[in-house]
Amino acid sequence: MKEESKEFTPNILYALCSWCGSGGSETAGAMKLHYPENVKPVRFYCTGGIDPVYIFRALLEGADGVVVSGCHPGDCHFDTGNYRARRRIAAVKTILNTLGLDGDRVWLRWVGHGEGKRFVDTASEFDEHIQEKGPSPLKGIRGV
Ligand code: FES
């Protein structure tokens, strides 16, 4: 790890569906597991409702990375919302890569309701991943 990235604390948005993703977060709390405090959870009804515009806007307005977690394939409470999310996240990554803006700053990881450790591991792993990358090149690109 580079010396300069040790001092970098990334702003990370952790978008969770209100069922399994948030359930994983609650299970982590019940298990008294901790994740980095710079990882900020935000709840959505379903990952399928996360418009790619939200992700681009988060990256433009200060997030260094966005991780999305929801129900495992076949478990979405809205039938196929997580499949829609998978397609959308793939499209977001492709767009970012096409523009040379690093699509690997956006992750999708399934987290089940009872998977508190997986929730915490995902948050910690993504935090380390973004720390190694350094600040997002999109930050402040709008000049606001
Ligand atoms: Fe969890 Fe759809 S309700 S991904």
Task: Describe the overall structure.
By secondary structure, the protein is of the alpha/beta class. The chain has one domain: 3-Layer(aba) Sandwich (Rossmann fold), CATH 3.40.50. It is built from 5 helices and 4 strands, in the order H-E-H-E-H-E-H-E-H. The protein has a 4-stranded parallel β-sheet with strand order 2-1-3-4, sandwiched between helices. Strand 1, helix 2 and strand 2 form a beta-alpha-beta unit. The N and C termini lie far apart (31 Å). Residues 1-5 have low confidence and may be disordered. The chain binds FE2/S2 (inorganic) cluster.
Give structural attributes.
single chain; alpha/beta; Rossmann fold; 4-stranded parallel β-sheet; 4 strands; 16% strand
- Report the total helices: 5
Bound molecules: FE2/S2 (inorganic) cluster
Query: Per CATH, which architecture?
Result: 3-Layer(aba) Sandwich
Topology as H/E string? Answer: HEHEHEHEH
Instruction: Give the biggest sheet.
Output: 4 strands, parallel
What value does the average pLDDT take? 93
How many domains? The number is 1
- What gross morphology would you assign? globular
CATH class: Alpha Beta
Q: What strand order characterises the main sheet?
A: 2-1-3-4
Distance between the termini: 31 Å
Q: Strand tally, please?
A: 4
Question: CATH H-level name... which superfamily?
Answer: Lumazine/riboflavin synthase
What's the gyration radius in Å? 15 Å
Q: What share of the residues does DSSP label as strand, in percent?
A: 15-25%
Residues in helices, as a percent range: 40-55%
Low-confidence stretches: 1-5
- The secondary structure category is alpha/beta
